[in-house]
Amino acid sequence: MTAKSAAAAxxxxxxxxxxxxxxxxxxxAIEGYWKGRVDADALRATATELRxxxxxxxxxxxxxxxxxxxxxxxxxVLDTSVMVGAIPERHRAAVEADALDGYFAMAxxxxxxxxxxxxxxxxxxxxxxxxxxxPDTAFTADSTQQVAALGQALALGLTARPVLVGPVTYxxxxxxxxxxxxxxxxxxxxxxxLPVYAQVLTDLRTAGAEWVQLDEPALVQDRTPAELNAAARxxxxxxxxxxxxxxxVASYFDRLGDALPVLAKxxxxxxxxxxxxxxxxxxxxLAAVGGLPGKRLVAGVVNGRNIWVNDLEKSLATLGxxxxxxxxxxxxxxxxxxxVPLDATAERDIEPQILxxxxxxxxxxxxxVTLAKGLGGGTDTIAAELAANRAVLAxxxxxxLTHDPAVRARTAAVTATDGRRSQPYPERAAAQxxxxxxxxxxxxxxxxxxxxxxxxxxxxxxxxxxxxxxGYEERIRAEIxxxxxxxxxxxxxxxxxxxxxxxxxxxxxxxxxTGYLATQHGWVQSYGTRYVRPPILAGDISRPxxxxxxxxxxxxxxxxxxxxxxxxxxxxxLAWSFVRDDQPLADTAxxxxxxxxxxxNDLEAAGTSVIQVDEPALRETLPLRASDHPExxxxxxxxxxxxxxxxxxxxxxxxxxxxxEFGDIVQAIDDLxxxxxxxxxxxxxxxxxxxxxxxxxxxxxxxxxxxxxxxxVPSADEAAALLRRGLEAIPAExxxxxxxxxxxxxxxxxxxxxxxxxxxxxxxxxxELSAS
Length: 772
Description:
Oligomer: single chain
Structural class: alpha/beta
Low-confidence stretches: none
Strand content: 5-15%
Mean pLDDT: 95
Number of strands: 21
């Protein structure tokens, strides 16, 4: 096919779409089901209607081929485990008794069975449920969900393409099941898994699928020759099937590198590549392999992970370069639109001029359709759209919001000394022990306590004008008093004020910093029914006034025990926001760090002796290629130290991280120079404690003994067992006892019981240590 005919054949598509609905209908239906207010039929009806609404919106916007299989009640990787029959033994009876309840049991756990481990989906803020596999795993095909979704779309008269997690990525994301040797490699199960995928493909073809998309984002990471050979074998076998749909293998989030020649040679009909994060690298690699003659190329030229309006002319130039490299070039976002909010036009509180800079899922869909139209019909067919786009880009570039000379001057004046504590850790530790006088194995929590219905109602009433600020603050004071009282009675050693006043750990601060924009309806799924509204970091950052001092000092006035000041760190402020793309991330991180440094110093001046600066996103923001790690970790750890280094030696700096793999960043954790770090460890059975020990980590650590992402209450014996396992790696004088993460999403009854058991466990193990 000539470049001209490839352009004429251009079509618009997407890989996935936000699941929740305009009003988060899915979240409400699922949580209603968990509480017994919604039955299974009503939940399924809600899901059916949401899928129908999404597909119709896409089709009406001009999307030629809608995705199916991207919708999920909880997580698409968990859905894949169900599809291939990889059900953990501890959940098998529940799944066989009731498929829906068993599905949620795997996601959330029950009082008798722990859930699957949860971790980050590559370098995004989406969490997936980690498959558990063993040498004895017997895969079985169950394509019921995938076939039903396809049938629903086809019944609406739509052209539909099922989207599945690819077999190589699925195995590379998996872990050895509990009790299986840690060195077991799930990828050794590939030959056992491929016939199951073959059956699913056959079922989808029978159900009417012309194309099926197999997502292989794991191939953008550094892969060994054996792993690349496995990918080649997988697509040789699947491509060699006779009764199958056409196969589109998709990869995104970075450059494919050595995996691109493997996929280019595979007997599949199409590839989908990311031309936003890795445009130049993927373009060069495509040219180096001689293009994709006879194949379909789906070009992800609209950023599916950020919310800034696309530069249409730049994207058209990229698409033009791709013409001639494939038999057919289609236009898409770089990845699923799951990672952005649904519709920017719902925002009423953002200035209209600034709102034009933003593109959520519906606006990105329109951009994709416009680009496909321009590619197929020429720029004259979209002249008006191009002119409007140029005006929007110029408006953003010239806005006073994006450039503050005072902020830039302060950032430029930063020196290496600003990022170093005044004394080395051993001297600081001695000063902190003398000052704080904590017991062996001190107990604490990560920061937030349950956000009750009363709190959320009070916040809504304040926004709606039903109560004034005085009434709202009275409610916050009462909540803080209850939280402090509970912690004292329970016997926790270092307390928190509970964060009753905070809507979200990033949004709360963003709303008080210049340069940020907040949304009202910009919900994005983090995991399951947990949705967040990432703020938009649009311009230069500064702190007009103190943000946390008032409520922290009020809490401290209620107790003689230390109360931690709680802040969100600079890297997490970036990672959990939609961050500006018009300057290097390192520059933006430094601006945020200086604003937070002012807050840290003000907390200390107000008498706060323990200050926690959370950086749960440090690992998730790690680039997917090892060659890109050093530069990122250098500026990320510098930003943390710049935030925290201005305090006295006897002020104890904590940090917190959760739900990621930490083994490959232990040196960076060390480089933060925090006095105490708390990390997720309950679901991973203290793996992180062993990783810290293997590194020789010299400071204090609190690997979590209570999994807060499950409603189950761990017994005191269970917490004590985890604590003993932690002591095998970390000396008692440096070990803290705490939950995995904040308690905001939990209910009070389970929180009370779990923390009481946590304190009992700590006391039990202290007694054991004193007797030994």
